Amino acid sequence: MGVLNEFKAFAVKGNVVDMAVGIIIGAAFGKIVTSFVGDLIMPPIGMLIGGVDFSDLVITLKAAEGATPAVVLAYGKFIQTILDFVIVAFAIFMGVKAINRLKREEAVAPSLPPVPTKEEELLGEIRDLLRAQNNRP
To answer: Strand locations in the chain, DSSP E?
Structure first.
């Protein structure tokens, strides 16, 4: 039972839950970026270089023979994947940069001195009265 309780304590820690949420959001973001690159970025680039569809750019190493498919190097898909990575990396960089800027602003913001509690005020008055009594001739 000890291992189960230990695992439960580990699984519900804030960092583990935050990481899981980050992974799920990251996967969804990856799909968005893949669509952005494949559907919006690559067609105009392909059109600029002569109407080429990057997913069709391949080097055939061995032609198809009967039921055996062709062996190809799909370098067009590789170029598209590199662009996906660059866009994701740039988006993460911008996000981290924004978070770091917020942290710096938070650290620079002056904090107000703490307001003394009622007890602290009373203790201060007692201290001042005792000093005044000790200083009398």
So the answer is: 59-62, 71-73
34 pLDDT above the threshold of 90? no
Strand pairing class (59-62; 71-73): antiparallel
**CA-to-CA dists, residue 67 to 63, 64, 70, 73, angstroms:** 11, 8, 9, 19
The residues spanned by each domain of the chain are: 2-119
Gap between the Cα atoms of 99 and 106, Å rounded: 10
3-state secondary structure (DSSP) of residue 105:
helix
Q: Provide the CA 43 distance to its chain's centre, in angstroms.
A: 29
CATH match for 2-119 among 1.10.1200.120, 1.25.10.10, 2.60.40.770, 3.40.1360.10:
1.10.1200.120
- Residue 44 to residue 37: CA distance in whole angstroms: 10
Encoded amino acid at 88, one letter:
V
pLDDT by residue (tens digit) across 44-84? 888 887 877 777 889 999 998 988 999 999 998 898 888 88
| pLDDT tens column, 114-123 | 888 999 999 9
pTM for the model stands at: 0.53
